[in-house]
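Input (structure):
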């Protein structure tokens, strides 16, 4: 998958709806979600760059650099930049990068086809808030994720 491939599918209605469903659980559904750091803080823009700011999370007794609408870890973001050539951490880049992660989990075809429960199952290790995740963090109920997906125009096969 190339950056052009990501750009081609990011606006597909099922992809947009799935991205919104992911953001629900990540606590980034609002307009400021693209600037959110783990724990609820925000980073300043411009410039649109991953803040790489470690935040201690008491509930998991560990540090995290998660940031943006999809709560990308700094290490994950650097890998995506290397693979796809993102020039910034803008909302468009974050959306495309999230699609790259979905594809990397083998779930993009499921999303496009409306096989959302299968896509959730495949992506649950990427996003700790998805139902069935074993990360030990709070997860969203499946019914709520599906409702968010449908409310944002997604179709179920």
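Output (sequence):
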């Amino acid at each position: 998958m190339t950056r052009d491939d990501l750009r081609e599918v990011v606006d597909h209605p099922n992809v947009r709806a799935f991205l919104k469903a992911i953001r629900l659980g990540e606590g980034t559904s609002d307009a400021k979600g693209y600037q959110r750091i783990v724990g609820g803080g925000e980073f300043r823009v411009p410039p649109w760059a991953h803040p790489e700011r470690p935040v201690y999370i008491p509930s998991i007794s560990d540090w995290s650099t998660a940031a943006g609408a999809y709560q990308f870890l700094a290490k994950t973001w650097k890998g995506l930049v290397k693979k796809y050539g993102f020039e910034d951490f803008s909302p468009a880049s974050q959306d495309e990068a999230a699609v790259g992660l979905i594809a990397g989990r083998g779930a993009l075809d499921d999303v496009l086809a409306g096989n959302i429960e299968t896509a959730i199952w495949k992506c649950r290790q990427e996003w700790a808030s998805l139902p069935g995740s074993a990360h030990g963090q709070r997860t969203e109920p499946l019914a709520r994720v599906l409702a968010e997906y449908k409310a944002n125009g997604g179709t179920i096969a």
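Notes: The beta strands are 55-57, 62-64. The first strand starts at residue 55 and ends at 57.
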